[in-house]
Every structure is written in structure tokens, then in C-alpha cells.
């Protein structure tokens, strides 16, 4: 029987799931994903996690608990330190596997090998070999498995750059048809935020889905090629060392530069230091030119859906009014 490896539908799932899945399957594992976020999953995460943690970390706890309940043999929680040269991922990712081990009882073994390519992209080999060793694979076998996973990742990124959202791109990779383009949309809005906030329909109160239903085409930083994101962020006087903050800020500023979006919505999580810095930075640049309407939405476990819906409706009305007013 294959080893069942659980991947929580949280944190960097929206960036790396297709690649991780392929890698683990090539190594001989069977991948099990936690369920879609529900109130129950969030509540269990809040109960297990420390109060001071940000909302996405609390939610990720709930997804890990869901994997424990599903009885998987391993939980895949790579210790994400750095995914790009001279950059870091938020330190909460670094400590996440330890927090989980401390606070969730009955945990199966955790594959928490570090991903750290801050100094050199070749350092990913350590990760590949160590994960492969868990499945009894040689370094060469592990590397071949990872190479196939890398090809899947490249296809996934291309699909995102064609305008698909992560769930849509994953469906295409699974052999389903690509969704129809939003040809009837009369507006284009950029939704900027951490992937685990904007793409999780429960935690984001389905902001993207609601905007689409209201007739808007939605773009996110992940629909831009990396060089476009970097072009956007190159307007800042200093380099951003946080990969996700760089992608969010670069995405917003590039959409502003291109002039192809009618409005920008920044989605931030309560108790997130990087989000407060990034949000302020983006807002300052967008408002300085004053051409594109901007709105910021803060999410926490108590955020009321009605308030978010009202604000989205008001924002859409204002953007449409500005367009007709010329
Ligand atoms: S970047 Fe913010 S939301 Fe993400 S893990 Fe760090 S503190 Fe939490």
C-alpha cells in the first residue's frame, strides 16, 4: 500500500500544490489534501493555535488537524525559509512545523525538510534528497522525481500567467477544460493579497467569486510573469526581501503602470506585519497618482460577511461611476 501523505490546503498550497503532489507521487506516495476551508476547520485551528498568530497560520492549524483526522501516514510541511535568492518567506512559515508539533496531539510524522535557496538555487538539492530519503529513494531517483514535478510547476505557472486562478489551473492540469474567459465583464479589478487569503473562498468571504459574479474580470499578481512583477517593484527605492510582499507590491504597481485595471483591492490578514507594511506601500503609490480607485479589506476570524459585501458593492459602484463620468 502506498504511503499516504497529507498536504494541508493552506499557506503555500496555492503556489506549490501541483509540484509537491507530483513530486510525492513520483516518490511513491499517495497525496491526500485537507478539505476545503469551513467554519469547523477554522474553529479547530483557532483552538489549537496560539492567540497571537495571524489568521492564515490559525487556519493552517485547522487544516493540519483535518489531515490528522483523515489518518494520513505523514504530513508534508516543508519548512519554507526562502524560495528565491536573497529573499525570505515570512518567519512564521519557518516556525510553523514546530508550532504544529507542539500543539497538535496525535500528529503522524511530519516531513518538515527546509526549503532554503537564499544563497543558491542549487541548495534545493538538499530538500530533494532528504524528502526522497523518507521514501527510501536514492538521490538520483529523488532528483528525477523532482524534475518531473518541476515540469508540472512550469505548466501551472504558465496557466496562471494566461489569466487562470489557481483552482482553475489545477483543474486544467487534471485534464479538465479551461474555464471560459469573462467576455461579458465590464470592469477589470486587481485583487492583491497573500495567496492563502485571496484564493481561499471561505477566509476571503469569496471576494474573487463575488467580484466575478458582479461582472468584473479579476486579476491577481500571479497572473503576471515574474519579470513583470519585478518591473513593478523596481519603482521602489529599496528592494523588498520578503518574496510574497515583493510579488504583491510588484503586482499592484505593475497593474497600475499598465493602466489595464479599473481598481485595486488589497486584502490583508489581521495580525500580519508584512501585510500592514505592504498595504501602506501599495496605497501610497496608487493614491499618489490618483488615477485608480483603491480599497483595503482586512480579514480576521470575526470579520462580518455583510460588511465585506457592502464595501465591495460600494467600491464597484464607485469604479463604474468613475468610468462613466470619464
Ligand atoms: S506573511 Fe502575514 S499572513 Fe503570512 S504567515 Fe506571515 S504574518 Fe501570517
Written overview of the protein:
By secondary structure, the protein is an alpha/beta fold. It has helices spanning 13-26, 39-48, 55-69, 91-103, 124-134, 139-161, 166-173, 195-198, 207-213, 226-233, 243-258, 273-289, 305-325; strands spanning 3-7, 29-33, 74-76, 79-82, 110-111, 114-116, 187-193, 216-219, 263-269, 294-299. The protein folds into 2 domains: 3-161, Rossmann fold; 180-325, Rossmann fold. The strands form 3 sheets. Strands 2-1-3-5 form a 4-stranded parallel β-sheet, with helices on both faces. Strands 8-7-9-10 form a 4-stranded parallel β-sheet, sandwiched between helices. A two-stranded parallel ribbon has the order 4-6. Strand 9, helix 12 (273-289) and strand 10 form a beta-alpha-beta unit. It is globular, with a radius of gyration of 20 Å. The termini are far apart. Iron/sulfur cluster (SF4) binds next to helix 3 and helix 12. It comes from Desulfotomaculum nigrificans (strain DSM 14880 / VKM B-2319 / CO-1-SRB). InterPro entries: CoA_activase_DUF2229 (IPR018709), Dehydratase_Activator_Redct (IPR051805), FldB/FldC_alpha/beta (IPR010327).
* Strand order within the widest beta sheet: 2-1-3-5
Task: Report the CATH C-level class of the largest domain.
Answer: Alpha Beta
Summed up, the helix count is 13
How much strand content do the residues show?
5-15%
Shape: globular
Second CATH tier, the architecture of the largest domain: 3-Layer(aba) Sandwich
Distance between the termini: 64 Å
Amino acid at each position: 500500500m502506498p504511503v499516504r501523505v497529507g498536504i494541508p490546503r493552506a499557506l503555500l498550497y496555492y503556489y506549490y500544490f501541483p509540484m509537491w503532489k507530483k513530486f510525492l507521487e513520483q516518490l511513491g506516495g499517495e497525496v491526500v489534501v485537507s478539505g476545503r476551508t469551513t467554519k469547523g476547520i477554522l474553529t479547530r485551528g483557532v483552538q489549537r493555535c496560539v492567540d497571537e498568530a495571524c489568521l492564515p497560520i490559525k487556519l493552517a492549524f485547522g487544516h493540519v488537524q483535518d489531515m490528522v483526522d483523515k489518518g494520513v501516514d505523514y504530513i508534508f510541511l516543508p519548512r519554507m525559509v526562502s524560495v528565491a535568492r536573497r529573499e525570505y518567506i515570512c518567519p512564521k512559515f519557518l516556525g510553523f512545523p514546530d508550532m504544529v508539533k507542539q500543539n497538535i496531539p496525535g500528529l503522524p510524522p511530519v516531513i518538515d525538510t527546509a526549503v532554503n535557496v537564499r544563497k543558491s538555487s542549487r541548495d534545493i538539492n538538499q530538500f530533494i534528497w532528504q524528502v526522497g530519503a523518507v521514501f527510501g529513494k536514492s538521490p538520483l531517483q529523488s532528483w528525477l522525481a523532482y524534475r518531473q514535478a518541476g515540469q508540472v510547476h512550469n505548466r501551472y505557472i504558465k496557466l496562471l500567467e494566461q489569466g487562470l486562478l489557481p483552482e482553475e489551473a489545477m483543474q486544467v492540469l487534471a485534464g479538465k477544460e479551461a474555464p471560459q474567459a469573462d467576455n461579458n465583464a465590464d470592469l477589470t479589478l486587481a485583487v492583491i493579497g497573500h495567496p492563502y487569503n485571496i484564493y481561499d473562498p471561505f477566509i476571503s468571504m469569496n471576494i474573487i467569486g463575488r467580484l466575478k459574479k458582479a461582472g468584473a474580470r479579476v486579476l491577481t499578481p500571479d497572473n503576471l510573469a515574474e519579470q513583470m512583477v519585478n518591473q513593478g517593484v523596481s519603482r521602489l527605492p529599496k528592494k523588498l526581501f520578503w518574496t510574497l510582499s515583493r510579488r504583491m507590491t510588484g503586482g499592484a504597481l505593475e497593474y497600475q503602470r499598465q493602466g489595464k485595471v479599473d481598481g485595486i483591492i488589497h486584502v490583508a490578514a489581521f495580525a500580519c506585519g508584512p501585510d500592514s507594511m505592504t498595504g501602506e506601500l501599495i496605497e501610497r503609490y496608487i493614491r499618489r497618482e490618483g488615477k485608480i480607485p483603491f480599497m483595503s479589506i482586512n480579514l480576521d476570524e470575526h470579520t462580518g460577511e455583510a460588511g465585506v459585501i457592502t464595501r465591495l458593492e460600494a467600491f464597484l459602484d464607485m469604479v463604474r461611476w468613475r468610468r462613466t463620468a470619464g
